[in-house]
Each structure stands twice: as C-alpha cells, then as structure tokens.
Amino acid sequence: MPKRETHADRIVREIVEGITSGQLAEGAALPSQRELCERYGGVAVDGAAGAARAGPC
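The line above is the sequence of GntR family transcriptional regulator; the predicted structure tokens follow.
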C-alpha cells in the first residue's frame, strides 16, 4: 500500500515544485507561516519541527 501523503509532505512537495519550475526564483523568500496557513486552509506549519498540523493558525 502506498504511503499516505501528510500535510507536511504536501507542503514540502509543492514548495519544491515551485522552486524547480522557476515559480519561486533563486533567493526569493519562501511563503510565511501565515501565507501557508491561509493557502492550506487552517493547517499550521511548525518550521522548527518540520511538521504540519490541522488546527487554527
């Protein structure tokens, strides 16, 4: 059975895709925690832990 993609996996995958596609230019700032929270509908991102959790931002 394939591994289920977590919120954190999805966020990382989409950021990597943005970088490799050129949508995020070299040296550009990554989205802030607030922007990620808004984009992913209430998924708070803990950058220090490298995790995402559902809940209020």
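Note on the example: Helices lie at 7-21, 33-39. Residues 7-54 form one domain.
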